Amino acid sequence: MAEKGLNATAAALLGLLHEGPMTGGQLMATAENRLGPFWTTTRSQVYRELPVLAERGFVRLGRPGPRSSQPYAITASGKRVFAKWLGEDAGRDQLRNPLMLRAAFGSLHKPQQLQELYAERREEHNARLAELREELKEVKKRDDAFQAATLEFAIQYQRSILKWLDTAPGLSGS
Predict the structure, then answer these.
(1) Predicted confidence band at 38 (pLDDT cuts at 50, 70, 90)?
(2) pTM of the prediction?
(3) Gyration radius of the chain's alpha carbons
(4) Buried b (16+ CB within 10 A) or exposed e, 6-43
(5) Three-state DSSP class for 59?
(6) Which of 37, 40, 75, 158 has the fewest CB atoms within 10 Å around its CB?
(7) CA distance 61 to 44
(8) Residue 111: band (very low, low, confident or very high) from pLDDT cuts 50, 70, 90
(9) Is the distance from CB of 5 to CB of 53 less than 8 angstroms?
(10) Which residue blocks in 75-110 are alpha helix, DSSP H?
(11) pLDDT (tens digit, 9 = 90+) per residue, 52-88?
């Protein structure tokens, strides 16, 4: 079978399967834990990609487990195509930030509505920042420099949003 390129979701799944066989649910949980601070993966994406990866010979199905869950394992072909993907250009960042999307239409908000949006997001980003700091402590104990670096990026991202919220247009007094 000719090896076509991978999309980012397929590549992420293959990367995670380097840790060992996992079911779709386990892949979702691992993706959320390992990649969630900077990359979103939906359940529908995971379950759409797994059969395609199997059909292309990049993963193989294991024995069905409880509730018909099936573990997937990466194949040698999957490792090769993943290694090839790692060497390709990463491409342009694709930022999808719902707060910034709404802020772009800030002049169409009612002032109170904008204030509430900012307050809700501030609370959310402060909570996420606290979670990430705790995760980073745990990762540093495991001496995982790459996971620590991505968590540090996520921490800086959260700080950046909070800093932006300090001076966001439409705030009382700004």
Answers:
(1) confident
(2) 0.80
(3) 20
(4) beebbbbbbbbbeeeebbbebbbebbeebbbbeeebee
(5) strand
(6) 40
(7) 18
(8) confident
(9) no
(10) 76-87, 98-104
(11) 999 999 999 988 877 778 899 999 999 999 999 999 9
